[in-house]
Design a protein that fits this description.
The protein has 189 residues and is of the alpha+beta class. It has a single domain (16-171), classed as Umud Fragment, subunit A, CATH 2.10.109.10. It has helices at 16-39, 150-153; strands spanning 41-46, 60-66, 81-85, 93-100, 105-107, 129-131, 136-140, 156-157, 161-170, 174-175. Strand 3 and strand 4 form a beta hairpin. 23% of the residues are buried. Belongs to the peptidase S26 family. IMP1 subfamily. One of its GO terms (molecular function) is serine-type endopeptidase activity.
């Protein structure tokens, strides 16, 4: 026996108890990751031109604060970026900005960008207005000419909102804050 025999790793075959122990730990770890991803915070890549210039068309990695189904959504404000299940393609999530809350009156297409999409457009251009029904929100992309949003499919149910986008990871890491601000219009002038 040499003086370094104790430095050699000793390998043994795992017992059924070892397999059971580590298998249980792996399942628990996967379960914890699933709960965090679906109920706490999720990391997603948002791809497409609808949110230019806020998010890149080639893809932007963002963090999404998830809402548990029973608490959906606690504090949405006009201008918040949200992740929602697409009403057109339910297998996809979309990232859009909240433009109208329940009870708000919104202009369907203020810039006339939706012409030809066969959605809510009726030739009225920026003159058509809609009251957002209770339990729904009106969403739109920042790049209205490249976005399929509430102008095409109408207000979306709050049940489709999956969470609020709050942080951009890549590129240009930083918080994604509400970009819309209320105008202070003084009628005295």
């Amino acid at each position: 026996m040499t003086w370094y025999h104790h430095l050699r790793p000793s390998f043994r075959r795992p017992t059924w108890w070892d397999v059971l122990h580590y298998g249980t730990r792996a399942v628990q770890g996967i379960g914890i990751v699933w709960v965090i991803q679906n109920y706490v915070v999720d990391m997603r890549s948002c791809i497409g031109a609808s949110m230019l210039p806020t998010l890149r068309a080639e893809g932007t990695w963002v963090l999404i604060s998830r809402y548990p189904p029973a608490l959906r959504p606690p504090s949405l404000k006009i201008g918040d970026l949200v992740s929602a299940q697409s009403p057109v393609r339910p297998d996809r999530e979309v990232c859009k900005r909240v433009i109208g809350l329940p009870g708000d009156t919104v202009c369907v297409d203020p810039v006339g960008a939706a012409r030809g999409h066969g959605g809510w457009e009726d030739g009225a251009g920026g003159r058509e207005h809609v009251v957002v029904p209770k339990g729904h929100v009106w969403v739109a992309g920042d790049n209205m000419s490249g976005s399929i949003d509430s102008r095409m499919f109408g207000p979306i149910s709050l049940a489709l909102i999956r969470g609020k986008v709050f942080y951009r990871l890549l590129p240009n890491p930083g918080p994604l804050e509400n970009a819309l601000h209320e105008l202070d219009i003084d009628d005295d002038d």
